[in-house]
Design a protein that fits this description.
The chain is α+β, with helices and mostly antiparallel strands and 308 residues long. The strands form 4 sheets. A 5-stranded antiparallel sheet has the order 1-2-3-5-4, with helices on both faces. Strands 6-7 form a two-stranded antiparallel ribbon. It has a two-stranded antiparallel sheet with strand order 8-11. The protein has helices at residues 8-22, 59-79, 116-130, 161-180, 185-201, 239-246, 254-261, 274-287, 293-307, and strands spanning 30-33, 42-46, 52-57, 87-95, 98-104, 144-146, 149-151, 209-211, 220-223, 226-229, 235-237. The protein folds into 2 domains: 4-104, Phosphorylase Kinase, domain 1, CATH 3.30.200.20; 111-307, Aminoglycoside 3'-phosphotransferase, Chain: A, domain 2, CATH 3.90.1200.10.
Length: 308
């Protein structure tokens, strides 16, 4: 089957956008699919003097997701010292009823070939995000998406981190997972008990800190100039949440956290709370039709047993 990004109308739309971006003719000379690393059809169009990374999403939700993603990266670029990819033109354009997200492609080292310096750069980049603070948890007027799921970033009346995490992250994810029919009743009841106990489980109240929001390690690109933030859904929260998500799919080496500590302090009991901050993400995967659902349901069940 033809890759969705190699359909003639899509390729023409990308070439037009890339030519307008630099003000000179641009033609794709090759294509590398990257579907295994993205939730949408994705890949890199080779060209000169730059190549183009593209993602394709269907329908109205696709436009909303990509627009929110670019807004989030723009916020990170404006508010922190972290690097983000350069949008090609407006960054989001239409391809029929579908949406394209386009950025200048980066020369990168895949996760399997990361060096010690790459992992240290990842820790330093996350610390650069976490050096930015605000007066409230959340991000008013700036909702986003965690994967395919809408993410409500409105501050909560109580104004505390535990109230925000319970009301804006755990409770919505619990509803999604329960509505999917994949969540056992005893696990749902355990989440309810954990939400009631959050003030005693959550550790010290943090300062509202700029988060990546989906900081699993593959949402950072390792380049010769350091780590680059991608696929972010930012808001102000507890920095421990980002740190917990780094190893969400695969463990990260201790050198990431050592590098992070060179810039930002890390509470000594953080490791005891890692699974607490992953609960909402486990619920999101359990609510999806992803093949990871069953595996993550087991991890969710173990985490609930740990904290209830």
């Amino acid at each position: 089957m033809t890759h969705p990004l190699l359909k003639a109308g899509v390729v023409r739309a990308v070439e037009r956008a890339a030519a307008a971006h630099r003000g000179s003719p641009w033609t794709s000379t090759g294509f590398t699919p990257l579907d295994a690393r993205a939730a949408h059809p994705a890949g890199i169009y080779q060209g000169e003097p730059f190549s183009v990374f593209a993602k394709l999403a269907a329908g109205r939700d696709g436009h909303a997701q990509f627009t929110a993603e670019l807004r989030g990266l723009d916020l990170i670029r404006q508010r922190s010292a972290a690097r983000t990819p350069v949008p090609v033109g407006a960054g989001v354009l239409s391809a029929g009823e579908d949406a394209l997200l386009l950025t200048e492609a980066l020369r990168e080292r895949p996760a399997a070939r990361r060096s010690r310096a790459d992992y240290e750069a990842l820790g330093h980049t996350l610390a650069a995000l976490h050096a930015v603070h605000d007066s409230n948890f959340g991000l008013a007027g700036f909702d986003g998406f965690f994967g395919p799921f809408r993410q409500d970033n409105r501050p909560v009346p109580a104004g505390t981190w535990t109230a925000f995490y319970a009301e804006r992250r755990l409770a919505p994810a619990l509803r999604l997972a329960a509505d999917s029919g994949h969540l056992p009743a005893e696990v749902a009841a355990g989440i309810d008990r954990i939400m009631a106990r959050l003030p005693e489980l959550a550790g010290p109240e943090p300062e509202p800190t700029l988060l990546h929001g989906d900081a699993q390690q593959n949402n950072f690109i390792s380049s010769d100039d350091g780590a680059v933030v991608i696929d972010a859904c930012p808001y102000f929260g507890n920095p421990e949440l980002d740190l917990a998500l780094l190893g969400y799919f695969a463990p990260v080496p201790a050198m990431v956290f050592d590098a992070y500590r060179e810039v930002c302090p890390l509470d000594r009991d953080f490791e005891d709370r890692i699974e607490l901050w992953r609960l909402f993400a486990y619920l999101a995967v359990a609510a999806s039709e992803s093949p990871l659902g069953r595996e993550f349901l087991g991890r969710l069940t173990s985490a609930v047993a740990r904290y209830r």
